[in-house]
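User: Assemble these into one structure.

Assistant: Restating your components, then the assembled model:
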Amino acid sequence: MSANANARPGPKADDAVIAFRGVHYALPGGQVLLRDINLAVQPGETLVLLGRSGAGKTTALKLINRLLEPTGGEVHVDGRATLAWDPIALRRHIGYVIQETGLFPHYTVAENVALVPRLERKAAPYVRARVEELLALVGLDPASYIERYPHELSGGQRQRVGVARALAADPPILLMDEPFGALDPLTRGEVREEFQALQKRLGKTIVIVTHDTSEALLLGTRIALFEAGEIRGVYSPKEFLASREPVAAAYAEQLRRLEQFERGT
Amino acid sequence: MNVIQYFERHPDEILQATVEHIWLVGIAMLIAVAIGVPLGILVARRPWLSKPILGTANVAETIPSLALFGFLLPVPWLGDRAARLAIAALALYALLPIIRNTAAGIASVDPAVSEAARGMGMTSRQILFKVELPLSMSTVLAGVRVSTVLTIGIATIAAAVGAGGLGEYIFRGLAMVNNSLILAGAIPAALLALAADFLLSVLERSLRPGR
């Protein structure tokens, strides 16, 4: 924990919503998944964690809502180390969307979306209104979806319900792990565009994990490039495309080839 | 005298033995569920406890039933009354399938679902009662069904220690080399097992979660 010595304590240290300070994460067996991660997420920005499978991006995401705890350094949320938070309070403060959606199969769409407000013991009429509002927000007609079960929905619809559920308690922070990864390309494009519009309207601080370069460029205000448990750099989309850092350049090159193919040259 | 005639002549006596049998099995199953489900949850939550708990239940399962009744006879409070003794032995037999199925049911909950539950800030208690148990209910019930059918059969041996039930006829028939008498105990016991199996499987199907 020597990294703590230099970390500036106290909420006024800076105005980042999420900050990684010299974070290490190793499995109990000793395998190091993240080393020396430093990262600050500013209010209202969408930070994309980009990298190949096993690069450590999902691990980094789970450190934010304390599904995992750092083995070195500190992760701060709203200026407080995650270990100093009550984990339940921390997680209710942060929306969480995962690839397989993790919708409860024994709950209807309405019950799934209402989960966190109900845990917080919000009044029933408020919860009902909130569910309808959220379903409309993610582009699902409340009247025809409220009573359905997750297995009666398509992948795209499930994903929308997953987003609605994460937004239910109006958390200021949203974490998304490959949120569009399980969708077919067409649906994926659609949901992604809708999400972009949503993002602008809600002004939340969002961290998205993806291995898809075009998704990263489309959704991110900044991109943190992960490779083998380290951050290679943090770029704006423009900087990312122009970067000479070998890994970033490889991603950009890959993307250019794809575009050339699409243009037929 | 064949078995049909026997049924015709002693309907009240057989009914009473059947009720006794149901009572023995019912109480034993209540106890087994009350102990087995929490143990199953414990096994699912603390994998290192799985070997000792399942191992012990396994050993209990392998003791021949007649011997188990004998072993429990000198136990102070249990040995006082035949029914007490029989119920304890039956509950011990019923335990293993219930523990195993509860643990398997909880382990089979989609990890994405439990991760989402945790990530949304549910406490582990809430995850257990609102997510894991409801989703594994049909698997737990399958264990209860297997146990019940098993216990209905083994409960016939309870008559050996004087606890009554349908086993009375079987033991009497064996002693008297009277097949009708044996069947007078065996047939109702078999029907009871079939009925329990059917009713519990209906319940089990109705509890199966969507998807």
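The mean pLDDT of chain B is 89.
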